């Protein structure tokens, strides 16, 4: 059995492969985008967004820990002084980014909340320049500008949406913790493989949710109910537990592993920009599946976001 030190050395010796990193982020953003529609259907059963997030965290913790034990059990060992960093990553980087996003969309249109949350990659770039004193290529700034303008077109800000002040505060906090998640993951993945890092992250997130929403009050009965898939698939029905299983596996475990794994190949600034594909995918899926209409401006906005992502991928 390999020691933790040997496993760590193997991680550090990994040669970056940018093309693979970008492909991983694109796949993760696609899964996150699809997960939005699946979560919306699951929430139609009466399960609250916070309870769904609690189940998502606990399920991801169990799945990732089982995967780590089956493949590299030594990778789960904690090194001296490491637990507090993993606790911060799990609570602030994993639990809070979901918590404040759901609090924001409870008071704001989902498009507005996503636009504000995706200020996170800009905060990452500002941190790298101002605190780390590292250069960021001019093309990254241009890519960020394109992506934010595209998101603004997609949510049609010029229509004069009246914003809830507390909702804006929640969305801004979500942007900050999203940036923290990218930066913390980039740091920790240098010495720990993505699966074990996320296993510990979701463990501490699950501990947080256990105190915030005790498990003995979880509405377990709702998991056995059956709901229609809505929109173009309204004729099909699935049990809520199957939708929750999708949210856990393809909406959490797989995309989170892809995002954190990508940080071994691509800097956090670029990962954040490419991750802006998520609202584009979510909008297109909602259009195809849930029959939510798209205007010409929204389609143009999606195209502008894609230009920004393409610029980020060429900034090597």
Key structural traits:
316 residues; mainly alpha; two-stranded antiparallel sheet; 2 strands; 70% helix; disordered N terminus
Topology (elements, then pairings):
Blueprint: H1 4-12, H2 18-43, H3 49-71, H4 83-105, H5 110-117, H6 120-130, H7 138-155, H8 165-188, H9 194-212, E1 226-228, E2 237-239, H10 240-262, H11 268-274, H12 277-288, H13 296-314
Antiparallel strand pairs: 1-2
Helix pairs in contact: 2-10, 2-12, 3-4, 3-9, 3-10, 4-8, 4-9, 5-7, 5-8, 6-8, 6-11, 7-13, 8-11
Describe what you observe in this structure.
- The protein has 13 helices and two strands; from the N terminus they run αααααααααββαααα.
- It has 316 residues and is mainly α.
- It has a two-stranded antiparallel sheet.
- The longest helix is centred in the N-terminal third of the chain and has 26 residues.
- The protein is globular.
- The two termini are 37 Å apart.
- The N terminus is likely disordered.
Short description:
With 316 residues, the chain is an all-alpha fold. It has helices at 4-12, 18-43, 49-71, 83-105, 110-117, 120-130, 138-155, 165-188, 194-212, 240-262, 268-274, 277-288, 296-314; strands at residues 226-228, 237-239.
Overall structural domain count: 1
Neighbour order of strands in the largest sheet: 1-2
Helical fraction equals: over 70%
Low-confidence stretches: 1-12
Instruction: Evaluate the radius of gyration.
Output: 19 Å
What proportion of the residues form beta strands (DSSP E)? under 5%
Indicate the overall shape: globular
What's the story with the biggest beta sheet? Answer: 2 strands, antiparallel
Number of helices: 13
The H-and-E topology, N to C, reads as HHHHHHHHHEEHHHH
Q: Which structural class fits the helix and strand makeup?
A: mainly alpha
How many distinct beta strands? Answer: 2
Mean pLDDT: 80
């Amino acid at each position: 059995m390999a020691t933790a030190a040997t496993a760590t050395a193997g991680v550090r010796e990994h040669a970056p492969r940018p093309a693979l990193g970008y492909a991983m982020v694109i796949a993760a953003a696609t899964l996150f985008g699809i997960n939005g529609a699946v979560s919306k259907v699951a929430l139609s059963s009466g399960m609250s967004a916070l309870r769904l997030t609690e189940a998502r965290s606990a399920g991801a913790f169990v799945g990732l820990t089982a995967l780590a034990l089956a493949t590299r059990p030594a990778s789960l060992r904690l090194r001296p002084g490491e637990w507090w960093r993993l606790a911060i990553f799990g609570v602030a980087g994993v639990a809070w980014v979901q918590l404040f996003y759901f609090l924001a969309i409870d008071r704001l249109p989902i498009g507005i909340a996503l636009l504000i949350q995706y200020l996170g990659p800009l905060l990452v770039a500002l941190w790298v320049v101002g605190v780390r004193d590292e250069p960021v290529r001019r093309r990254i700034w241009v890519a960020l500008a394109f992506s934010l303008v595209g998101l603004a077109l997609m949510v049609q800000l010029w229509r004069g949406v009246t914003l809830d002040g507390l909702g804006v505060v929640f969305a801004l906090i979500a942007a900050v913790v999203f940036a923290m998640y990218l930066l913390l993951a980039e740091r920790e993945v240098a010495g720990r493989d993505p699966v074990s890092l996320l296993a510990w992250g979701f463990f501490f997130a699950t501990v947080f949710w256990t105190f915030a929403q005790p498990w003995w009050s979880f509405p377990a009965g709702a998991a056995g109910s059956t709901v229609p898939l809505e929109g173009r698939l309204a004729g099909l029905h699935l049990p809520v537990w199957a939708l929750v299983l999708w949210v856990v596996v393809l909406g959490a475990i797989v995309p989170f592993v892809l995002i954190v794994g990508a940080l071994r190949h691509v800097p956090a600034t670029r990962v954040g920009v490419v991750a802006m594909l998520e609202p584009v995918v979510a909008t297109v899926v909602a259009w195809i599946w849930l029959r939510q209409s798209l205007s010409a401006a929204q389609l143009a906005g999606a195209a502008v976001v894609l230009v920004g992502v393409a610029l980020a991928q060429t900034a090597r």
